[in-house]
């Protein structure tokens, strides 16, 4: 199966500042991928490179087997919903759908009308009069009705209230299943993405720190708690991701394929949020250079 996104030593520089560097990832098709990281980590830059809005400064990137934005056919394969869920305030809902039909050769008018009706959006209402959640749903409808193979969303729920965020993500999850759609969704709200994503990428310090399927990543990491011990005294197969110490106790997040056999240590499972935060903390990720990718 063609990878939905492949990047090799990908980098993007703005002036003298690297927004993204040394990015090497291989995302298989068919996943809802959560792109996570602190503000300024490079999430938006990676998404704009993937959608063809930016050119790499170094390295290369391929999306669905082609160069992003290179041809009309390639553009038709990818839908993009920007951070501010852009719609035109002066246009009605129906006018947005007609505009979508004119701009997109694979436009699914029946699906767009059905979704608008199900959401209770009034076709004659101007977008400027819609609530934030309704505007986000209209933007999502436009992205879905394009019938892309990959839908990219840049923090589309950042400004929504919790109920609107839940409804948006539920609709996105249902559409991804119904249309066998690959999704790449960025957010700094780990708890929201935990509900919908089965694959995650963590960016910090402008680099990829972790990438892989959620189940495999969680199985490969543990929290170890026990008597205070320096990390160099841990078994060689336990790679330390983060560490915390009190006077008598140490707590480590480690990556390992081997079970813990030391009775002095208690091993517990991590939540996705725990794991993401461990990798996002630049003070404990080998100065931003430890990278994990778990594949099939």
UniProtKB/TrEMBL annotation:
InterPro entries, A to Z: AAA+_ATPase (IPR003593), ABC_transporter-like_ATP-bd (IPR003439), ABC_Transporter_VariousFunc (IPR051782), P-loop_NTPase (IPR027417)
Pfam families, per the entry: ABC_tran
Identification of the protein by name: ABC transporter ATP-binding protein
CDD domains, per the entry: ABC_DR_subfamily_A
Species assigned in the record: Nonomuraea turkmeniaca
Residue stretches making up the ABC transporter domain: 5-230
Example of a GO MF term: ATP hydrolysis activity
PROSITE patterns given in the database record: ABC_TRANSPORTER_2
SMART domains: AAA (SM00382)
Entry keywords, A to Z: ATP-binding, Nucleotide-binding, Transport
């Amino acid at each position: 199966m063609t990878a939905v996104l492949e990047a090799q030593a990908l980098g993007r520089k703005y002036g003298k500042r690297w927004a993204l560097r040394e990015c090497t990832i291989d995302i298989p098709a068919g996943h809802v991928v959560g792109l996570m990281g602190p503000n300024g980590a490079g999430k938006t830059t990676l998404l704009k490179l993937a959608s063809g809005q930016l050119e790499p400064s170094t390295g290369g990137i391929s999306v669905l087997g082609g160069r992003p934005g290179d041809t009309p056919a390639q553009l038709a394969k990818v839908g993009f919903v920007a951070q501010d869920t852009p719609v035109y305030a002066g246009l009605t809902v129906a006018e947005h759908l007609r505009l979508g039909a004119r701009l997109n050769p694979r436009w699914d008018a029946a699906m767009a009308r059905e979704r608008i009706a199900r959401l209770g959006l009034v076709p004659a209402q101007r977008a400027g009069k819609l609530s934030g959640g309704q505007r986000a749903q209209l933007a999502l409808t436009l992205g879905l009705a394009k019938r892309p193979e990959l839908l990219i969303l840049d923090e589309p729920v950042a400004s929504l209230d919790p109920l609107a965020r839940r409804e948006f993500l539920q609709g996105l999850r249902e559409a991804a299943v119904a249309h066998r759609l690959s999704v790449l969704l960025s957010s700094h709200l780990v708890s929201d993405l935990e509900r919908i994503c089965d694959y995650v990428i963590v960016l910090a310090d402008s680099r990829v720190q972790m990438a892989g399927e959620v189940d495999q990543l969680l199985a490969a990491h543990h929290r170890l708690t026990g008597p205070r011990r320096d990390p160099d005294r841990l078994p060689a197969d336990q790679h330390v991701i983060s560490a915390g110490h009190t006077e008598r106790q140490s707590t480590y997040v480690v990556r390992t394929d081997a079970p813990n056999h030391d009775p002095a240590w208690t091993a517990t499972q991590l939540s996705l949020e725990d794991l993401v935060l461990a990798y996002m903390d630049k003070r404990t990720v080998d100065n931003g250079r430890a990278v994990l990718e778990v594949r099939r």
